[in-house]
Each structure stands twice: as C-alpha cells, then as structure tokens.
Amino acid sequence: MARKVILDEVETKFVNLLDDFSRTLNPPVECRIAGGWVRDKLLSLPSHDLDIALSIPSGHSFAVEFVNFLKTKDVTTGSVGRVAANPEQSKHLETGTTRILGLECDFVGLRSETYADSRIPQVRPGTPLEDASRRDLTINALFYNVSTREVEDYTQRGLTDLEKKIACTPLPPRQTFQDDPLRILRCVRFASRFGLKIEDHVMQAIKEEDVKAAIATKVSKERIGIEVTKMLKDDPFRAMSLIDNLGLHPYVFTCEVNPPRESAICSAQILRDLVNKGFHIDEILWLATAVTPFGDLTVKRKGKDVPAASIVISEGLKLSTETKNGVTNLFEAAKIVNPDATVRSEVGTWMQNPCVKPWQRSLTWSAVMEILPGWTGQWDQNAEQVVQKYEQFRRRIEESGLPDAIDIPLLLNGTELQQLLSISPSPLLQTIRQALNVWQLDHPEGTKEECEVWLKGMWEGEGRAEWEKNSQPKKIVKGEKRKR
Question: Which GO terms describe its biological process (predicted)?
Fold first, then answer.
C-alpha cells in the first residue's frame, strides 16, 4: 500500500487553489483533508467527498471567502451552505459546504469533543491530535496536509492499521463507543467493507452489555438504518456475521417482541451459498435475512396485527415504505409458492401476485425459507435438492415465456366484457377478469376471437354459477369481529 497520496488532475488543481488562498490570509490557515478521502486515496479508491479540517474555528466563513477567491480565478463553484455543530453553543464552529470542480467539500475547524449523556458532543476548537482522536477508527483519522502534501498520522497507527487491515479505535474502545455508540456500527461497516480484522480488545469492548445496549438508547433509529443500509452494499455477509458474533442483533434490529436470533445468521449463510448458484441476490434479500427471526410474528398497531418484520424495518430502522414492503412481501411470497407447479396459469398467477414481484427475488427467498428448517450450518444434500427444485422451477418459468406473458394486457377490457356478456359493472366483472387471465395464461397463442368463444360458452354453461358464487361478499361467521 502506498503511503503517499497521488492526486489526479482535478484534485491537484483544487489543492493548489486551496493552498494559494490559505496563504493569503493573515495569519495563514492550515488546511488538511481529513478522514475517508485520505483512506480511500491511499487504497487507490475513487473518492469525491472531501472534509477539509481548518486551523480556525469557522468552516463556513472560510468557505465563503474561498468561493469568492475562486470566482476571481474563473472557477465555477456551488453556493455555500451552513451546518451548525450546535446551534445554541457553537455558532463559531459552523461547517461550510459547497461543490468545487465537481468535488463535494465540507469545511470545518479542527475540534475536540466531550460527551455527557447523549451522543451529541460539546464541541470546542481543537488540535490535529484531538481531532484525530475523536474519530471512530485509526484508518479514518488520517490527514492530508495541503501545504506539505504529506499524510499526517497523529494516532501513530492509522497507516499501519490500514496496511495490515486492522480496525482499531484511536482512544480506548470503551471510551470511543460510550461517547458515540454509532461508532460500533461504523466499525462493523468498515470492517466488512475493507476486510479488516477488529482487534480483540475492541471486540471485547463492543460485547460489553452496557456498551452495545447504548445503541438502542443513544442512537437515533434513522442513523442506525443509514449504517445498516451502507453495510449491505459491500460485503453484506461479513457485516451480518460480525453483527451476530458481536451479539449486536437484538440492539440493531428491534421492536417490542424479542425472538431468538439464530435464524438471522442461518438464513444469511444460506443466501451466501446461493450467490454462486445463479440466484438473484440484492440488498432487500440481505435485509430479509436480518429480520428472519420476526418472519412469523405480528405486533399490534391501531388494533390490527402487523408483521413484526415490517415494524423492524419501518420503525426500528426508519427505512422507506418501499424497502419495508419489499422485505415483508418476501415472507408472504414464500408462503404461497409451489415450485412443483407445472400448470402455466398457476405459476403465472403466483408471479402476478403483488407480493411476489419481482419474481426472481421471491424465488430466491422461497428457496432460503425451504432450506432453513433443516439447515445445519453447512451446505448438504437437502439444501442441494431444494436448490435443484427451484432451479428447475426457474427454467420452467423462463422456457414457458411467463416473464413476458404476465404483463400482457387481457385480450378483452372491462367494457368489452360487459358488452359481450350483457352485464353491468359489479364485483362479478372482476371475477370474470380473473378467469380470463387464467385462460389467457394457459392459452398463450389464443386469439381474441377464441377468447370470446370460450367466455360465451362458460357464461352460458357451468362457468356462470361458479363466477357469481366467487364474486359474492364473504359471509361473516357468527362471533367473528367485523372488519371496518
């Protein structure tokens, strides 16, 4: 690993301009690019977000003056935004944000932090060492000095840890994590992203009950959700394994029920083994492994039973409705799948069910759910038989042309059905449309005329009575609570 930062053409121009401007000030301002950008550059990874740490308190005022300086050089910039570290007590420590030469830049003064009972610190101006010490990991505590063009390692081990792939905190880990428990999840994320070994004493600190319990009491659900989402983008299985090994699952994936958590890592192991077997894998599936322990549970919301898995996603992680539905639907899709089905319409109507779409994802999850009850931790004959069954099912789907067929409009629209059968709009019409959909799936070459002949025949024969029966409202059994 290189120990010097190699700048590209844009970065070189930016650094030169920043250095030139900082030297014009009286006294000159020391500028350092901090944290993730330095780490990524040393690893030869692309990075376009720059945190510029300054030897003066206000990053906002510096950014405003720098942008004005750039305008005299005909350099296009964005407007300067303001982020207050603490609106009541630290207005002199405001961060300035802007876009320069296509680079997202945050300007902020070097700082020191002290914590009381929350993860919101009391902030004051600090030295480079104090600023480096407040960061989550040593590999994220490196500086690039804009004036000297050198990497600065004030923790005395950031470069070595990056080279040896070690996750270690700048300060004693218990202090680091108690100050801000979100750093625990960041440690997991960076360890999984970069393949880092978390040092033993760091692991032990995370496993201490009061340390990990603070995740649930001191960190907002939104921040937990953001970190979980990020860790699923790189090496999700490693992230899930670390969460399991560190005993973090009950503190990250939460609602009012607290089931045994073993099925989470088991389903993750199965999904990992399916990656190389041609199955469709995405972040929604990895998130589903995390909430597998909640898959059969419900909780009460406004008097109704709601899937506990959906509550973990929407309330425990504050993720989007789309994500919540995507995960929750997987468990419903797995309950109604029949991988042995050979009738084209049976398979097609399963694929058309809203909870099944996209069908490739549901197929993968259904295989995971079928393997899970007999899972021993190792891929075995039972798992292989299940996979073979689902692979055959997938081939039947593709060979039958169903992926395209399920989205083809019905041969007759509602108005045409009413005219053909001389009926008025009613629930019966929807029942007939469902029957037409089944016929169309079973007769992929059928024409509109053939469809009309079949419909007329069914209407004048045995089909009418069945359709009328199926379109009747469900009778409420005596004693059953009426749903509003």
Answer: tRNA 3'-terminal CCA addition
